[in-house]
Amino acid sequence: MSAWTIARALPGMLIDDDLASRLVEAFDDAYEPFITVLDCYGAYLDPRLAPEDHLEALAAWVGADPSEGGLGPTRTEIAAAVEAHGERGTVAGLVSRVERLTGSTPDVKEAGAVTWSSTPNSPVPPGGDSTVRVQVNGAFEAAALQRLEAEIRAAVPAHLSFALEVDRP
Description:
Layout: H1 12-15, H2 18-25, H3 28-39, H4 41-45, H5 55-62, H6 75-87, H7 91-102, E1 107-109, E2 131-137, H8 142-155, E3 161-167
């Protein structure tokens, strides 16, 4: 039985009424799972503490990739996906994603430029490169190369393009 009962929420004139108390206590068993989930909601959002049957939903929320074994995402993969969101759009985040897929550190040439003007609506100066160049070493099959390109596309800021250069050993 839960520490919280519906009978406690009855109005003052019914709280001492035995019949009313027994009638609403019949619903306590039905509401107890909801109250427990709400009391422990923080644990449902922590991949270390979440119940096994909640891991799939948690993985979908944070964009975690399922494990290679097909058993669904592991707690470690979910935690890594949460951590990766903090690095999203940065060179460090891009390097980390490519390292996880290829096992080697890529060479990343940053793109973009910053400028300012004291005149409103002035044109952007030409010459800024908007392509991130990612160079990796290795021999990749077509499917692995497509997955690598998809991961790079997801890691590079939306306003930039990318070029993947593969140096085969």
